[in-house]
Design brief:
Blueprint: H1 3-12, E1 23-25, E2 32-34, H2 53-56, E3 65-67, E4 74-76, E5 106-108, E6 115-117, H3 138-142, E7 150-152, E8 159-161, H4 182-187, E9 194-196, E10 203-205, H5 227-230, E11 239-241, E12 248-250, E13 279-281, E14 287-289, H6 290-294
Antiparallel strand pairs: 1-2, 3-4, 5-6, 7-8, 9-10, 11-12, 13-14
Length: about 300
Amino acid sequence: MTLSHFFAVVLKTSETVHCPEGKWKCMDGAKCVYHSWVCDGGSDCTDGSDEWQIICKNWNCTEDRWKCADGLQCIQSWKTCDGTDHCTDVSDEWPASCENCTSNNLWTCADNKKCILFSELCDGNPQVDCLDGSDEWPDTCHEWDCPKGQWKCADVEKCIPNSYVCDGYPGGGCNDGSDEWPSTCQSWNCSEGHWKCVVSLVCIRDEFLCDGHVECTYESDGSDEWPETCLKWTCPEDKLKCADNLQCIKEQYLCDSDRDCNDGSDEQNCKDFVCGQGATKCADFTCIEVNVIWRKAPGQRDCNQFQIEQ
């Protein structure tokens, strides 16, 4: 936009809406927007004038905002030097803007054009964080110690989250597959809340143990449902053990007319069972949610045509 065109638009808006303090009038005069919305990278005015270059070049950012080097955008001050690009020119992550990357525990890319978070170093992300790709260079990663909570692959070219190690997914972690090697998993201690499969040595979440569905499927394992495993296993607080002690089910599955325990014990002795909150007992002693009785959806059971107990 030329200056002559700009001032012509300004004159046209002289008789339009009046904006209160703290707001700015869009150039078409049809709308007022907060000062903090002007030059924030997203158009709020119908005519887009709050993001016009001629406006932003001369705009003073509000006190809580920081102006990008190209002068075209104001970003929230706390977003500078956080390892993520917010300015379109990336100036909020330039070493010169971030005390040479010493602020917020940042790492300087080899070309000295950007600061990134240490957690982004050697993370194997194909969308490299440094413009020159130096955060994924072998020379960089060979010397890099992974941060807490991450594990270095055998080829020392990548750090992965601990939860990816021995999780049974060879393609989801290290490029060399070392996170699933038997030699790795033999000595690996599963993280809290996880259990190690006996054969495959894969780590699975505790909640999947003895639930009637095999989770240790890698290398035809199945040890999470072995009788010798489940007889010793204590169900989580929100689950109950079936009569044969081989399976854990949720308490809400008791006496619901659906057999969840392999031995059928969850549907036995229901006469004296007290239904949970929001449910009532049918004449066959099974429990059903009250809202299902009045608003039965396709596929939902009612009381199997029995009269509801009063």
